[in-house]
Amino acid sequence: MNRIRTVITGMGIVSPIGCSVSEFWNNLIEGKYGIRPITVFDPAGFPYKQAGEVIDFQPEINAGIEPVDRGLAFILEAVRQALVDAKLYPETSTIIPAGIMLSTNFGSAIAMENVLKGTASSHDFLKSGFQYSADIVARIFKLSGPRIVQSLSCSGGTSAIGLAAGLIRSGRVDIAIAGGYDELSTFAWSGLSALRTMTTDKIKPFDKNRAGTIFSEGAGALVIENIEHARKRHVRCYAEVAGYAMNNNAFHLTAPPRDGTGSARVMQEALLDAGLSPDSVDHINAHGTGTRDNDVTETRAIKTVFGEYASKIPVTSNKSIIGHMMGAAGTAEAIASVLTIKNGIIPPTINYETPDPECDLDYVPNVKRKASIKVVLSNSAGIGGCNAAIVLRTIEETNE
Question: Annotated catalytic residue: which of 283, 287, 359, 386?
Answer without folding.
Answer: 287
